[in-house]
Design a protein that fits this description.
207 residues; mainly alpha; 8 helices
Length: 207
């Protein structure tokens, strides 16, 4: 599919300023409140295999600039020694025991609070992807660069209601939902997505 490389952002300039300020403030607050949890996760990962606690991976963010997304390591150290490979929820043999628990409860995403504080990400926005998969997505739908207009997010409408993408075809569907989100986004939309995410995670919902 060939189409536009720019779409109109539904959020006002004032809304974007409030969103950016709220991101930094809330990330700082959540970092402080979750400190005991970080310590527990650190000990659990170290006790299992004594490997690195944090895992970083290059993703593409706003303006098409690369950055390193941070997560608690949930896979074996050599998980991608044979190249990029998508995570298969529940059946991926690369997962560690601790990592499987972290993934199922979305706790591996906690270090992305650092990405939000640094300004690489927002709490709500399209999930950032690796260049390797962006190129595969663009073979089917070349509108992916439209997502570079906004900061990528820790959570998104597409992830919340369409689940984790374990195939390129699902990634293309997610792209189309993300494009619709950008056109229609507002502070109220982001607030609803954020609260829906907290509600689902607190209930143990898998997505």
């Amino acid at each position: 599919m060939k189409s536009e490389v720019y779409i109109k952002d539904g959020m006002t300039r004032g809304g974007r300023l409030i969103k950016n300020s709220a991101d930094i403030f809330l990330a700082a607050v959540f970092m402080i409140l979750s400190t005991p949890l970080w310590i527990i996760i650190y000990i659990a990962i170290k006790k299992e295999d004594n490997g690195p606690v944090l895992y970083k991976q290059e993703r593409i963010g706003k303006f098409g600039r690369p950055f390193y997304i941070l997560k608690f390591r949930s896979m074996k150290i050599d998980a991608e020694q044979n190249g990029p490979r998508l995570y298969k929820a529940g059946v991926d043999e690369r997962m560690t025991k601790v990592g499987k628990f972290l993934r199922e409860h979305h706790l591996d995403e906690l270090p992305q609070l650092i990405n939000v504080l640094k300004g690489d990400m927002s709490f709500v926005g399209p999930r950032p992807e690796r260049q390797y998969y962006i190129e595969k997505i663009m073979e089917i739908d070349d509108r992916y660069p439209c997502l570079y207009q906004v900061k990528p997010g820790v959570t998104s409408y597409a992830t919340l209601y369409h689940g984790y993408c374990d195939t390129v075809e699902k990634m293309v569907k997610r792209l189309r939902v993300d494009l619709l989100y950008i056109r229609r986004r507002s502070l109220w939309t982001d607030i609803k997505i954020a609260f829906a995410t907290v509600f689902r995670v607190s209930r143990g919902t898998k997505f």
